Amino acid sequence: xxxxxxxxxxxxxxxxxxxxxxxxxxxxxxxxxxxxxxxxxxxxxxxxxxxxxxxxxxxxxxxxxxxxxxxxxxxxxxxxxxxxxxxxxxxxxxxxxxxxxxxxxxxxxxxxxxxxxx
Length: 118
Fold this sequence. Notes:
This protein has helices spanning 50-65, 79-90, and strands at residues 2-14, 27-39, 68-69, 99-109, 112-116. With 118 residues, it is of the alpha+beta class.
């Protein structure tokens, strides 16, 4: 099996309403998002064209989250819940007979990330 991964970034603000500490206050991040799709190669010997992957992620995710207040979209926008929300938006778009979404990784800082997969 082969996998392809593409990395995206978006800037957004949030606050963690169920958290007691610094992050319960409004603040922002430059998030790094990794989308991993795995499957068999097509006739062009690719799992999925990177430009097709980019188009779908830009339409479904980046256009909604970039420069947003994420709490308007996800009630408790922890990195874990953002990753799950992204998975839910993309899993059907990246599910065919040949390939499927394997993993969503959301980096909140350069050293801290949450990963969602099924």
